[in-house]
Specification:
This protein is an alpha+beta fold. It has a single domain (7-61), classed as Alpha-Beta Complex (Molybdopterin biosynthesis moea protein, domain 2). It has three helices and three strands. The longest helix has 10 residues, at 52-61. The radius of gyration is 12 Å and the shape is globular.
């Protein structure tokens, strides 16, 4: 039995999940998270995850991307 957690309950999202959830392209998310000082990216080895809540807060303060 496999349990799937809904995207809106996950604390960290893959680039593909974040792209679908926020309606932003994967390439744009890669571009945004390439900065070393990005406050909403979590690196697990070479895997890049988006901190959902922190990204939502960042988006509310941002005019355009």
């Amino acid at each position: 039995m496999r349990y799937e957690v809904p995207i809106y309950e996950k604390s960290n999202l893959t680039l593909e999940e974040a792209a679908a959830y926020f309606n932003i392209g994967v390439n744009k998310l890669r571009e945004l998270t390439d900065d070393d000082k990005c406050p909403f990216v979590l690196w697990v080895g070479s895997k890049r995850l988006i901190k959902r809540v922190q990204f939502e807060v960042w988006l509310t303060k941002t005019y355009s991307i």
